[in-house]
Amino acid sequence: MDTFVQWLMLAVAIGVGWLLGYTAKKKxxxxxDPALPSNLKDRLKILFDTYSxxxxxxxxxxxxxxxxxxxxxxxxxxxxRKNGEVEKAILVHQNLMSRPEVPKSYADEVMFELARDxxxxxxxxxxESLFLxxxxxxxxxxxxxxxxxxxxxxERDWDRALEYGVRYHAQKGVDISVMLAHFACExxxxxxxxxxxxxxxxxxxxxxxxxxxxxxxxxxxAKIHMAEGHYSEAxxxxxxxxxxxxxxxPEAIPxxxxxxxxxxxxxxFRHYLEGLLVKNDSSSVILGIADSYNxxxxxxEAEKFLEGTLLKKSSLKGLDRxxxxxxxxxxxxxxxxxxxxxxRVTQSLLDGKPVYRCESCGFAGELLHWQCPxxxxxxxxxxxxxVEGE
Length: 390
Ligand SMILES: [Zn+2]
Fold this sequence. Notes:
InterPro entries: LapB, Rubredoxin_2, TPR-like_helical_dom_sf. Fe cation binds at residues 358, 361, 372, 375. It comes from Alkalimarinus sediminis. It is found in: Cell inner membrane. This protein is elongated. A three-stranded antiparallel sheet has the order 2-1-3, with no helix packed on it. It has 20 helices and three strands. Helices cover 70% and strands 2% of the residues. With 390 residues, it is an all-alpha fold. Among the domains are: 2-121; 354-390, no CATH class. The structure holds zinc ion.
């Protein structure tokens, strides 16, 4: 069997060798891109599919590094990485890096592939150092910037993520403006924690410069105004959320309510929500209006409004609140008992229900993550709509 395998290997090696020679000659004449032709990749695929890992290992070790075989080494390395055998990939690429006979035209590609191996192995500092060296590379500079942005995100180094993100964003055909806005917001959040409101505001303006639709920036800007006691300014900013993305209005309502308490503008707050209701009949808007009626005009007015709204739009949260209002004036024992039963059902349906869902991967949870914890995309987690949601 061993002999048979060796013979087969030899046959494949001869075939690949012939093709490498042919490619090298063709390249010498045309001076084209050093990328491998697809039929060589096909031949390598046959090698990987047909032989055991041990045979491939010994084949790689016995294969000399020459200008003709560099492409093959690179393909074998990337095969190992794709198969999760990162250590083997690192050995193949490190071997190439240490060889002075590797042609200059391949040097950047070898370094890039080794950096990707380090990424796959979680060795971020080593990957970072190689990607930084490739910054000026014509073929791999832009790709390296993308990976650097990824590394700095993983390390939560938002200053560098923003710096390299801006450089990557400037590349032709690249648009990561939503991501850049969130990097600026991350920095602003840190500044807010340190009470550096002036700098935080500047970072948030920068965020809105990248992405005018960045709801997070306006919510944070409003919180800064509120921390400084500037409630009217906060209201102006919070009312912009509707125009940015109406699905996020529920995030602004509790803050608007807080501002109205300090400004003593309960009815103004309610009128604003009533105006919104025409375009946005989310549970938060409906409950915001009902609660405002309850505070200013009493529970019967709140009940009347909520009943009328629930006849037009089914909402579990609305029903739950209606039970609360009706319980206030319930007198008979049977009414109180019935309301208690309904309340128990609505609460058990609402408890533990996810409130937000990622539009990209479907991840659902009770917290609003600006970066999806599952697919790592930015700005894709939104409040869940429907009878049980908004
Ligand atoms: Zn996701």
